[in-house]
Amino acid sequence: MLVGWFEQNARDLPWRRTNDPYAIWVSEIMLQQTQVRTAIPYFERWMRALPTVESLARISSGRLHKLWEGLGYYTRVRNLQKSARMICQDHNAQFPQQYDAVRALPGIGPYTAGAICSIAFNQPTPILDGNVIRVLSRVFAITSDPKEPRTNTLLWQLAEALVTRAARLSPPSGCLPCSALNQSLMELGATLCTPRSPSCPLCPVQPHCGARQRGIQEQLPLPARRPATTQRHFLAFLVEHKERYLVRQRPDGMVNAHLWEFPNAEVKAPLSTKLDATARKMGLRIIDRKPLCTLKHSITRYRITLAAHRAEVVNLGTLADGHWFTRRQLDRLAFTSAHRQILRAATL
DNA sequence: CTCCAGGTTG
DNA sequence: CAACCTGGAG
């Protein structure tokens, strides 16, 4: 019934048009922490640029990060390449099919390993992501915190029982029952069994849904409590000289590692009286005290306000890690979303 | 505007 | 268990 609904209502997504485990792996990594709508154009561009594991293993770091620019969580893309190199070394460039070998690749945890093995290889491996947690919490009316170890174990057991039963039932010919079952659960969570205002009247499972019967579907699953946020303020400087712009690359091991950005510094106060002093410390002088743009963004628990100002160079030696690039060259570098926005504001 | 969602890692 | 990032919903 659920699978029947899925076969009638599945969205036509690019990674559903392939059974190449490499493509399915790439799509699953992109879909970690990322909305389907956002991932689609990235996936299509990626598969054109890097159609095989070997091409991923060989691509330069710069081009690799550019393909991921704007998706966030950039360790994902470095883990993709690290895994591709492991696959070339240890698996003869063939994507492994054993669950344990899949799980051993960096960036692949229990969810992603289960998703790849079930979707690409039709193995009865369970999956439990945010969508499935929501669907199972509601169908089985689980009122305890899904993050709590006992409840989490129960949810994994339910997911496993469902996919195992799907494998056992004699399938209609030409159907991949484990793949279809797991994708059905996720599709239901993504389209009908949504976090807020679920579309219960359209749901194929509605007659069997414990939460719906009790009228508590809107309250499940129990929301996670979130950490307190911290305000932070940054000043960034757009330095243009002879048609070139001053940028730097963030070092390994920090937030947004390997991505490019404009020179910037954290300041204590939002409307900084330290604007000139901050610039001077970096060997720069403010041209226009009116910001080129101000923008807000968040990284984990930090709420960041960033103001960008045009500036000029006073002392070139102070910014040791600076590089000068033309506008055209900047377009080939991977920037964080915040700094890509500065560039857009500057050259619009 | 604020709040929220979301897998893996160290 | 905190850190990682961005886009979308309300």
Listing every helix as H and every strand as E from the N terminus to the C terminus, the arrangement reads HHHHHHHHHHHHEEEEHEEEEHH
Distance between the termini: 52 Å
Overall morphology = globular
Please, what is the CATH homologous superfamily of the largest domain?
Answer: Hypothetical protein, domain 2
Q: What is the mean pLDDT?
A: 94
In the CATH scheme, the class of the largest domain would be Mainly Alpha
Rounded Rg: 24 Å
Query: Which sheet architecture does the biggest sheet show?
Result: 8 strands, mixed
**Percent range of helical residues:** 40-55%
**β-strand amount:** 5-15%
Classification by helices and strands: alpha+beta
Low-confidence stretches: none
Would you count the extended β strands for me? Answer: 8
Number of domains: 2
Tally of helical segments:
15
CATH architecture of the largest domain: Orthogonal Bundle
CATH topology of the largest domain: Endonuclease III, domain 1
Topology of this protein?
Elements: H1 2-9, H2 21-31, H3 36-49, H4 53-58, H5 61-68, H6 75-90, H7 99-103, H8 110-121, H9 130-139, H10 149-168, H11 177-191, H12 210-214, E1 230-241, E2 244-249, E3 260-261, E4 264-267, H13 275-281, E5 284-286, E6 293-299, E7 302-313, E8 323-326, H14 327-330, H15 337-347
Parallel strand pairs: 1-7
Antiparallel strand pairs: 1-2, 1-4, 2-3, 2-8, 5-7, 6-7
Helix pairs in contact: 1-11, 2-3, 2-8, 8-11, 9-11, 10-11
The chain binds a DNA duplex (10 and 10 nucleotides) through helix 6, helix 8 and strand 6.
